[in-house]
């Protein structure tokens, strides 16, 4: 039974957000968009990691002017991931001045909190919506906790203060976020943009706030919803907060596309946010993106670090292979792989995997049985266990999963 919050289906290039479509993973570059080559390289990195939509900042005339060259460069690499233009403050000017950029971008992101104030706000918002209508583009109405419409929040706070039973200020801010997004979305529809061209987000930085706001949104609209903490943080803090917040909402059937907004650790690859988003969806059995690696945490029986090194090596091997495997083989993303550290749980867990290896524990005989689909297949020994195991995985994929071209040819 499908428990998902019912929403309109929004087409973003070849990707569908909402409706009956799977939850979509997206990400954002952190390059200067005017730096064409660096932006192309990072978009390709994110797309290769599995990001199905990539957003870029369009904050200046130089950035807007660079978009056609970015599309041209991506086309040379056969990278057709949909690109979203992120507009703040001057979006009305850039979208109306740079026609080719407006035509090429697959979606526009508009923040009602910084479009403008008073009459200028409506005029600038309408100008962007008119461009979206002209080029038949979807938009994301993206409200942020840190740039909330001050006029609206002040009005709601004043009204609450005059009430006989005033509500906590946190509840009023939640209402302001929801009302800002829904009012803007409804205004876009009234202007002539279809409801199936609108995605809504209300991003905050705290877990409980995000859950409350999106539960309110889901109860009050059928617009497609974009999930994510706006500033999740760095490392384990950002991963845990994003996983908990989005995991709860996704389990309730709320959310059509997600982004994990991690602060990159020094020297870390930008694609980590894509991998975390995929792992959140995969842990919930919402979607599968890459083979899962089951591995034990280690104990006194596994004082050797080899099983940790092998686990990391196998995980990296699978992710690098998936760049091509996802296009070559059907169902390979559902494969289960195990790397276990000793004889206690090793053989059992390995038998539960499609292919698993049980390494010797401390002081045990230097041999590692490999199990394939529940049966012992071979025993690996010597210094080349890692390479031999990766070779067995690759052979298993080639023998087990149907090539995509054969499926296409059969139709």
From TrEMBL:
One of its GO terms (biological process) is terpenoid biosynthetic process. Keywords: 4Fe-4S, Iron, Iron-sulfur, Isoprene biosynthesis, Metal-binding, Oxidoreductase. GO terms for molecular function: 4 iron, 4 sulfur cluster binding; 4-hydroxy-3-methylbut-2-en-1-yl diphosphate synthase activity (ferredoxin); 4-hydroxy-3-methylbut-2-enyl-diphosphate synthase activity (flavodoxin); iron ion binding. Pathway: Isoprenoid biosynthesis; isopentenyl diphosphate biosynthesis via DXP pathway; isopentenyl diphosphate from 1-deoxy-D-xylulose 5-phosphate: step 5/6. Residues 292-394 form the IspG C-terminal domain. It comes from the Bacteria. Residues 7-275 form the IspG TIM-barrel domain. InterPro entries: Dihydropteroate_synth-like_sf (IPR011005), IspG_bac (IPR016425), IspG_bac-typ (IPR004588), IspG_C (IPR058579), IspG_TIM (IPR058578), NO2/SO3_Rdtase_4Fe4S_sf (IPR045854). [4Fe-4S] cluster binds at residues 296, 299, 342, 349. Its cofactor is [4Fe-4S] cluster. It catalyses: (2E)-4-hydroxy-3-methylbut-2-enyl diphosphate + oxidized [flavodoxin] + H2O + 2 H(+) = 2-C-methyl-D-erythritol 2,4-cyclic diphosphate + reduced [flavodoxin]. Pfam families: GcpE, GcpE_C. Its EC number is 1.17.7.3. Binds 1 [4Fe-4S] cluster. Converts 2C-methyl-D-erythritol 2,4-cyclodiphosphate (ME-2,4cPP) into 1-hydroxy-2-methyl-2-(E)-butenyl 4-diphosphate. Belongs to the IspG family. This is 4-hydroxy-3-methylbut-2-en-1-yl diphosphate synthase (flavodoxin). It comes from Endozoicomonas elysicola. The gene is ispG.
């Amino acid at each position: 039974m499908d428990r998902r919050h019912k929403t309109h289906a929004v087409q973003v290039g070849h990707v569908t957000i909402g409706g009956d479509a799977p939850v979509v993973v997206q990400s954002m570059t952190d390059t200067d968009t005017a730096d064409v080559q660096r932006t192309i390289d990072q978009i390709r990195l994110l797309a290769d990691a599995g990001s199905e939509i990539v957003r870029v900042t369009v904050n200046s005339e130089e950035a807007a002017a660079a978009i056609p060259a970015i599309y041209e460069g991506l086309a040379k690499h056969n990278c057709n991931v949909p690109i979203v233009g992120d507009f703040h403050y001057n979006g009305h000017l850039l979208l109306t001045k740079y026609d080719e950029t407006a035509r090429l971008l697959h979606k526009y992101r508009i923040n009602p909190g910084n479009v403008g104030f008073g009459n200028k706000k409506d005029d600038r918002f309408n100008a962007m919506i008119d461009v979206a209508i002209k080029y038949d583009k979807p938009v994301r109405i993206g409200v942020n906790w840190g740039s909330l419409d001050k006029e609206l929040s002040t009005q709601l706070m004043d009204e609450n203060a005059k009430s006989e039973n005033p509500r906590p200020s946190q509840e009023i801010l939640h209402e302001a976020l929801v009302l800002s997004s829904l009012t803007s979305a409804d205004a876009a529809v009234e202007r002539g943009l279809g409801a199936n061209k609108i995605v809504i987000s209300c991003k905050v930085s705290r877990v409980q706030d995000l859950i409350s706001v999106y539960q309110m949104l889901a109860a009050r609209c059928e617009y497609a919803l974009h999930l994510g903490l706006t500033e999740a943080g760095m490392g384990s803090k950002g991963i845990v907060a994003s996983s908990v917040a989005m995991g709860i909402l996704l389990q309730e059937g709320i959310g059509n596309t997600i982004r994990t907004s991690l602060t990159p650790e020094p020297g870390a690859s930008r694609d980590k946010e894509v991998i975390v988003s995929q792992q959140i969806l995969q842990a919930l059995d919402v979607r599968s993106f890459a083979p899962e690696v089951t591995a034990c945490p280690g104990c006194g029986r596994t004082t050797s670090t080899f099983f940790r090194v092998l686990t990391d090596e196998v995980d990296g091997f699978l992710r690098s292979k998936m760049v091509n495997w996802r296009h070559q083989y059907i169902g390979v993303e559902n494969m289960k792989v195990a790397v276990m550290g000793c004889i206690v749980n090793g053989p059992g867990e390995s038998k539960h995997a499609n292919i698993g290896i049980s390494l010797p524990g401390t002081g045990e005989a230097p041999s590692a049985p490999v199990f394939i689909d529940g049966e012992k297949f071979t025993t690996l020994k010597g210094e080349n266990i890692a390479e031999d195991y990766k070779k067995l995985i690759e052979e298993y994929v080639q023998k087990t999963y149907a090539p995509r071209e054969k499926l296409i040819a059969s139709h």
